[in-house]
Amino acid sequence: MKPNFFERVYLVVKRIPRGKVASYGQIAALLGHPQAARTVGWALHALASEPATDVPWQRVINHAGRITIARAGLDAAFQRHLLEEEGVEFDARGDVDMERFGWEGMDWAEVEALWRETGNE
DNA sequence: GCCCTGACTGCTA
DNA sequence: TTAGCAGCCAGGG
Known about the structure:
This protein is mainly α. It has helices at residues 5-14, 24-30, 37-47, 76-85, 98-101, 108-117; strands at residues 22-23, 60-61.
C-alpha cells in the first residue's frame, strides 16, 4: 500500500536539496501525474495548517520561478526570505532563475525507494 | 457517490 | 509579451 498522494508529495519535497527549487508540475510528474500540479499545490496548502512540519514547502514554486502562495492567503515575502537564506537568488522581477536554482528532480527508482522507506509498500 | 474547490500548466488570441 | 480559458487530479463536504 503506497502512501496517499499528499504523503508522496511531502516525501518528494523533502528530497529537494537546500538552495534548490522545484515546480508544482515537476513534483506532480515525479508522482506519475504530470497534470496534477494543482493537486500538489493543494497538498502544500494543507501543509500550511501544520506549523510543526519538516517539509521545505518554500522550495516549491510555479514553473516560471515565481512565488504564488499569496493566492492561498499566505506570505510570499516570508517564503522569499526563507529561500534567500538558503542561497536562492531572485531577479528584479522577483522571480527565481530556474536555470540556476531549479532542482533536476530524481529517478523513478529513487521515488519508489522512498515509498519503500516509508514502509507502506 | 456526486459536486466543488484549488499555492498550476499549457495553449490560443 | 500579456491575458484569458480549459484541462487535469485528489480530497473534503
